[in-house]
Amino acid sequence: MKKLKLLTLTLLLTCVFSIGVNAQTNDRIQKEYTLGNTIINSTRSTEDDPLSYMNDTLSKTDDYLLIYCNTVSIYTCDSIELSIYLQKKVNGYWSTVKTYNCSNSNQSSLSITKQYRNYSSNSEYRLKVYHYATYNDKTYIQSSTTSTLTTD
User: For the chain, which domains are there?
Assistant: First the structure.
């Protein structure tokens, strides 16, 4: 019985430590901050990647939801694009209420700021954002989703 317990414990610890090692090989660091009525979701690459830094911000003001998204590359890319989906939770499901798209050619960054005035009080909103960079005929894609912002 002691051998079985020891074997089970050894197996469990091996699994736990191997998961930790695999988690450390991730090439992206993502952090999210909530400051009052503002959610900031930032991601940066730890490798030479055309999608070096991405920032998605959703904030509530008195009159509108403020959306700010930014993509920065360490390279001058053939194109950089953003596809932004403002989503609202309706009956337990996320539904896109507004879509924004923008792109730049032969640039190393792209930023967009938008105001959404048709928001509902006492509702939950979030951003689902796709960042694209095309460099040397290869397209890189990263997506991110902010936490929920509740309007009052």
Answer: 35-150 (2.60.40)
Given a contact cutoff of 8 angstroms between Cβ atoms, the answer to whether 32 and 43 are in contact is no
For the beta carbon of residue 15, count every other beta carbon within 10 angstroms.
10
Integer Cα distance of 77 and 135 in angstroms? 5
Cα–Cα dist 52/74, whole Å: 6
* Predicted pLDDT at 34: 87
How far, in Å, CA of 105 to CA of 77, rounded?
A: 7
DSSP state for residue 26 in the 8-state scheme: -
- pLDDT tens figures, 98-130: 999 999 999 999 999 999 999 999 999 999 999
- Using DSSP's 3-state secondary structure scheme, residue 49 falls into coil
**Can you give the C-alpha Rg of the chain in angstroms?**
20
